[in-house]
């Protein structure tokens, strides 16, 4: 059964559109389960009823004609119960309904399973038999498993289908994702191609067959050249078997029949070169995989690899012909900081990522740059919308492809409102961060890019609470040298001097991967991250802190901060290295003071040892993004669980209060530099808790300052007490937004 499951899912994944998906399902399920009938009903988005969309075994003319409301008939009952119904004699069930158009009266046994995607019943998959018999447990389990696996594919195919038919007429289509960076962007989609993989090449046709053939031939030539060159370079290091592999690759590419097969598809079906190549190569892969001889089975991986190489060349040929449009909205399967950095800043206005969530690092960078972003837009058929007009609603996490004039007009108004609010907040830049009754809190900024510096200074930042040093590392293709780092850090320190700049030591791992230092792990957020990496690589750590200290020469505004500290040992080990770097520099003749050394509290163990850590550190700062993910056991980068990631969860609030109390008991200043500090409502709670420093992106700073200056400390204290009584994050969020509205700060909430 597992083999059948896999092959059905694979086939469905490769299907070109929704009707093809449905046909494959009904055909293959009937064949594998050996039933007389297999049918699929899908929910009609407009009417909410479930319509027969494909069948093998019932009268084909009834497709599109039979429809049931939730709760109506057996299919409608599967929908409302959200579980399978397995009947020996369907006609004896009280909910049974007979549709003469289907010819259904001939079938007795009935098994229907719901197809559920993100808690919504998309449809029902039904098998039927003529005789009276109950489907056995194995059959039921098979259908349940298959329905669960197909739900995502069907949802995606539905979304793609909506766009494909609408595409020619340029009618508006809406897609949902996660609101990741506030604001609205109206512009053109620019797609960042995912890494070459044969099985994810979308179905696409070409306009100009001759040009496509030419593209294909050029890619073949380039791939052949590349393989030859690599084989040549490595020839002394390869054994005979490995050398033979290179020869085999080249002879496959030289083999005319492969090229002929691909060209036939480009000519005959007007397929794009990438799709034609992927189809042909996948067929070869499957043929190898099905062979009984294990040697040949293993060759399937080689064929796949060769396929991916050529695909990469096809992509490169296409990419090199592309320019970034004005008002570019960058879209990719998993956007990275490096992809972002490739686009000229003046052209980039928004981001959309199919994977990831509001707390992924690319979303944090988007917020810092003031770029509206939607993450986790899983159903968006992004490969098909390159160049299309798009509206990104970063407040609600919504996207519109081919927006109507009316929709555009509505969003133009929101953009204008935003500008108005920003102008209104401009005057705050020169005013201190204090409450209406004079309680002073430092409002600092989080930085990473050079662009942040200008924005931060314009907005009156009083210091830097978190400079993410990994950002310049992410934008390079090798580790920056000590001198290169010194120059980068100097710019930051100089720009803010005499204000303090907190530089965090390299925090890679998790969702921050350096292309030139890959970390392959099954559980990266619990793996080799942050301080764990740099303590294992003292040469990297020492080089970095030396560069920071040298950069601070004559300015003395540097603070060093350690990420991901989970116990006292890590702090002590790191302190020794920092002290060693400092004394080496002094020996070398540098007149540098030893900078304050602080730590981030972002791991639950550090919350419970906050007092001991605070006694040994010069300052502590909560990384609430990670702390939330670890306290709630919710991967911050996973869009599937994004709805249960709550920075205002009661457990998180209690931990935050515990940390600030523990820090103050040790007479140590306590800050916070997670995204919560940049949320006006969250910031009021943090001020009430007693946080000394709130560090946030420059975009949010004026909003937080406006909120703080409008309210007294006593009011915040009672708001905090009220929130700490509540048991659910939603209640806390609601309480905060009602409070902001009540005190006349509604404009600081998101529009609409
Ligand atoms: C945090 O975890 O809250 C934090 C500020 O660090 P980062 O988001 O870079 O992991
Ligand atoms: Mg962190």
TrEMBL record:
InterPro entries: GAF (IPR003018), GAF-like_dom_sf (IPR029016), PEP-util_enz_mobile_dom (IPR008279), PEP-utilizing_PTS_enzyme (IPR050499), PEP_util_C (IPR000121), PEP_util_CS (IPR023151), Phosphohistidine_dom_sf (IPR036637), PTS_EI-like (IPR006318). PANTHER family: PHOSPHOENOLPYRUVATE-DEPENDENT PHOSPHOTRANSFERASE SYSTEM, PHOSPHOENOLPYRUVATE-PROTEIN PHOSPHOTRANSFERASE. GO terms for molecular function: kinase activity; metal ion binding; phosphoenolpyruvate-protein phosphotransferase activity. It catalyses: L-histidyl-[protein] + phosphoenolpyruvate = N(pros)-phospho-L-histidyl-[protein] + pyruvate. It is found in: Cytoplasm. GO terms for cellular component: cytoplasm. Its cofactor is Mg(2+). This is phosphoenolpyruvate--protein phosphotransferase.
